[in-house]
């Protein structure tokens, strides 16, 4: 599992790999599923319990926990200048309903481990270095996701976030107030304070690093994403009496639309990712002609020009193939591709080299909170492999050696900010 402590005297700093792994497994028990995964929904009782655990670990290491109005958790290693913009590193604690032990939480615990290591060695940086756990990255309980980072970055208003409700009708506002009520003594930071830099460690959630037998992915950017809610309106009718020629069958219209979308949008080029991920048919009765079909579409591409074009074509194809039904296309998410800071990418590559870890540039196919930090400050991501590229599943897995390597890279990238390493701040 690697060395168990930092060793600055030998020229290369290292985190406590055993402590990091044991904490990953400890948080995996909060919301554990029978299949070995995790169900820890945003703003749930399980997430509140994970906050308690994180705060206990932070306080025991001499670190300072705080929060903000959007329910983001911050844990700071205090710097000499408490008014200077801090450096942030982290990810998220919430999971998919049948998620794994590493998605999101690895980046938070890697950042906490870095701060704990620095604190143990008496490091006092010039500015605060802060571990962050963003609220509701996954969007599985409250949709869409990335609410905490979007509110922090000003992409979405706090009022809009608080108005969202889950499937049981519970509003974010009520769940967020309950979270804050559970920690009445926790200091409240202003929402969207200035940040000097942002780093996020994460499992790849894809097969590339494993296939290339590479330990560290230097993430160049995140591909763009659009999501759409599409409602096809027809007319209900009796399955035994209504002639085929007289029907306005919403499901039949769906089959035409779906075929056209898969052929033109999904087949545009090798880089496109097109998914119809949710389908609802009404009244969904065996002897009734369907009157309404609702579907949710996820469209991704690394080229913003192509993504924009495909989004326009998607709406046009829906209109073309809907008749005799009507169709309504509503855009839900419009997140363009973004690149990450070149200097931070170089620092990640150097840090990987310093611990003799193989590394390669890689584009993130999945979305992350780092997307919203990139316009605010120099930002970057560190990927480690996950077995068979599996994520958002109970059998998601990362090797202990890779977990340690990613955290060691994060540590050595942050050292110049801490004033504890050689070289200039990226």
UniProtKB/TrEMBL annotation:
Cofactor(s) the protein needs: Zn(2+)
Pfam families from the UniProt entry: M20_dimer, Peptidase_M20
Enzyme class: hydrolase
Source species, domain of life: Bacteria
Keywords of this entry: Hydrolase, Metal-binding, Zinc
Annotated residues for binding of Zn(2+) 1: 92, 103, 202
UniProt keyword annotation of Zinc present: yes
Chain residues that bind Zn(2+) 2: 103, 138, 392
Protein name: N-carbamoyl-L-amino-acid hydrolase
Naturally occurring in which organism (per UniProt): Variovorax guangxiensis
């Amino acid at each position: 599992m690697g060395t168990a402590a930092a060793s600055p005297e030998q020229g290369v700093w290292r985190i406590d790999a055993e402590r990091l792994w044991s904490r990953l497994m400890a948080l995996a028990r909060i919301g554990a599923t029978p299949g070995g995964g995790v169900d820890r929904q945003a703003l749930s009782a399980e997430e509140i319990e994970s906050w308690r655990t994180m705060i206990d670990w932070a306080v025991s290491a001499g670190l300072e926990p705080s929060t903000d109005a959007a329910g983001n958790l911050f844990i700071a290693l205090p710097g000499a200048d408490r008014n200077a913009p801090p450096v942030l590193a982290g990810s998220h604690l919430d999971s998919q309903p049948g998620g794994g032990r590493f998605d999101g939480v690895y980046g938070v615990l890697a950042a906490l481990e870095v701060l704990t290591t620095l604190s143990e060695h008496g490091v006092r940086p010039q500015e605060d270095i802060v571990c962050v756990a963003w609220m509701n990255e996954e969007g599985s309980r409250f949709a869409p996701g990335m609410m905490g980072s979007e509110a922090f970055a000003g992409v979405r208003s706090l009022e809009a976030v608080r108005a969202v409700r889950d499937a049981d009708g519970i509003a974010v506002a009520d769940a967020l107030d309950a979270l804050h009520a559970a920690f009445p003594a926790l200091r409240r930071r202003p929402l969207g304070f200035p940040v000097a830099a942002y780093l996020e460690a994460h499992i790849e959630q894809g097969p590339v690093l494993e296939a290339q037998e590479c330990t560290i992915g230097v993430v160049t950017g995140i591909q763009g994403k659009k999501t759409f809610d599409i409602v096809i309106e027809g007319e209900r009718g009796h399955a035994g009496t209504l002639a085929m020629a007289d029907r306005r069958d919403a499901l039949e219209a769906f089959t035409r639309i779906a075929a056209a979308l898969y052929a033109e949008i999904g087949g545009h080029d090798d880089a496109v990712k097109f998914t119809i991920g949710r389908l609802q048919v009404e009244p969904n009765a065996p002897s009734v002609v369907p009157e309404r079909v609702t579907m949710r579409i996820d469209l991704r591409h690394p080229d913003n020009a192509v993504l924009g074009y495909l989004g326009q074509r998607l709406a046009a194809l829906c209109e073309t193939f809907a008749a005799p039904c009507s169709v309504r296309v509503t855009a839900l998410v419009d997140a363009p591709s973004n690149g990450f800071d070149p200097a931070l990418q170089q620092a990640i590559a150097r840090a990987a080299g310093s611990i003799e870890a193989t590394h390669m540039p890689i584009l993130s196919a999945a979305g992350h909170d780092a997307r919203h930090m990139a316009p605010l400050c120099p930002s970057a991501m560190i990927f480690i492999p996950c077995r068979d590229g599996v994520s958002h599943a109970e059998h998601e897995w990362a090797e202990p050696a890779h977990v340690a390597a990613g955290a060691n890279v994060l540590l050595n990238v942050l050292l110049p900010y801490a004033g504890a390493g050689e070289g200039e701040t990226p």
